[in-house]
Amino acid sequence: MGKFRVVSLVLAAAIMGAALTSCDDGRQAAAKQAGSQLASAFAARDVSGVPMQGKEPAAAQQQLEAALKGIGEVKPAVTAGEPKLDGDKADVALNFDWKLGGQDWTYTTTAQLIRSGDRWLTQWKPDLLAPHLAETEVLTLATQASPRADILGAGDAKLVTARPVVRVGIDKTKVAADQQADSAAKLADLVKTDPGEYAKQVAGAGEKAFVEAITLRDEAGRTPTDEQIAAVPGAITVKDTMPLAPTRTFARPVLGAVGAATAEQVKNSGGAVQGGDTTGSSGLQAQYDSQLRGLDGVTVYAQPADLTAEKLKANPAARRTLFDKAPVPGTPLKTTIDPKLQQIAEDELAGVTPASAIVALRPSDGALLAVVSGPGGNGYNTAMLGQYAPGSIFKTVDSLALLRQGGTVDTRVDCTSTLVVDGKTFQNATGYPESSLGNITLRDAYAHSCNTAFISLRDKLSQAQLESAATSLGVAVDAPRLGAPAFLGSVPGDAGSTEHAASMIGQGKILFSPLAAAIMAGSVAKGSPVSVQLVLNGQAGTTAGASPSGTASPAASASAGSTTAGAASSATGGAASSAPAASASPTAQAGPPLNAAEAATLQDMMRAVVTSGHAGFLADVPGAPVGAKTGTAEFGSDTPLKTHAWIIGTHGDLAVAVFVDEGGLGATVSGPLLKNFLVKAAG
């Protein structure tokens, strides 16, 4: 009996325990669900659907909105802890995480739940929102912007740094109300902005507002002058600083610009950007905005809802600090741009009307020294993102492919006046010397750029071999060290008969950017493929709503046919890659890297272009011997056809590509630009 009694007691206890556990589990799960619902409601800043005790949900929502109005529209992340049960009551920890100006404000409050039938109700109180928040208090947010970090160039030269500006506008306190519209129109006309739109802005601003019309660099010779501005009733200047490059145009398509954050940027930033913040709007300024911007200083206060500036001044203790973080300075962005070479190239292209570019790099380490897009591109990054038929500079790729098939610089080729392929007539560029026609060496065909000679080699070189040779020269491959969006070329591995013939002279579907052309030249000079680099320490985190690549691309022209009268043409949009570096031929069959022996032969051929070919004008450039290759690519349907003008050059540890859209012949249009650049760079 004793043993039976013990077993019975144990069994009864187990049954009772199971019943209690079952009961607790049911309450625990329900309380946990209620806590999670409450956390989600706070995360959405909407508690109107939360069951409550002691306050109507609508009234609680009204109080929540009032309490959080001063903190902006940012929403917190909120999670609920495990409920702690005490009969029909439960405490649930609510863990808040606010992202304010990029700073984390974290804290925990405790919600008290009461069971009512099969539901758990929240006991509403203001300190659910923030620790010790009183019934009559609200939260307010104050931010202190961190100075924006500089963008640096070679030798840590300051490319973009805080430079003096003046903000020009109407101070409505300094002009009678009935004269404000007239003053606004006069000032708008003076600073060359829309008078009607600016007058609306002035009219819609507060009675004591300063309404900015324009921000100008505060430099010698500025127009309009302070005297001209002061002559407009109510117009004033306010001195300030802004992150600016040395000049308005200096590397702007690459470096980008900054401005006041847009509503979209604020909305999409997750609290990292506040209204009125300065953010990057294009180029590297946008791509590396979070690195350059740093973190705002953030202070959150709890204060009476009716606290005014006067009351606060009289009683500073009326406001309590709940959270305070100092600004975190941004980190300067280091680039390889050489200010001297960049400015030389900018000056060379200043008067060029069509879209144009000069790209200079140092072959030994791949550093991009100058990346200039001329004014004809209307702000587009032609140098890095343009997509154009490279024309005869592509014969460098042909030549490498031929060397790999056993050819040499002395291989004999037939240079004829014309050549017909599948009914299409190809010819040499206008002005091709008759003395260089006939059975000539590969070196001479390259030096004088004989189209028909290279096209006649099409049966010895497949399209796939052209693709392979291009990748061996650093073209149409990834550039993992670049650090900025770029188009590095496209060389299809398959082509029809006529298209393959056109590919031999850098047309058909072959596309280069000026950057890709400079990389090809640099690889020849280095003796191995160049891995190009622009940004040295980038931590990309593009601000939502900004455009890393800058202005939308105009249609970039690319010849789709051959060097023949009436050749067909097509256009490519020149779309920017959103990745820091991109290959236009992701399926390209990479060839073996260019080796020293192959490079030496190509260097000899490029030197021949200067000593006996089209680029004799480069022979007197001081310093190391210059190597070059000219290129002209026809496109469009006009008569005569329009042409892209190219030239690539090497000069010691410098490789340069010059491009002019609708530019005529490479030797006569781009050639002088290259010579001037090299001479000044050497000076």
TrEMBL record:
N-terminal signal peptide: 1-21
Location of the NTF2-like N-terminal transpeptidase domain: 55-136
Residue intervals of the Penicillin-binding protein dimerisation domain: 145-302
Compartments where found: Membrane
PANTHER family for the chain: PENICILLIN-BINDING PROTEIN 4B, PEPTIDOGLYCAN D,D-TRANSPEPTIDASE
Record-stated family: Belongs to the transpeptidase family.
Protein name: Penicillin-binding transpeptidase domain-containing protein
Taxonomic path: Bacteria, Bacillati, Actinomycetota, Actinomycetes, Micrococcales
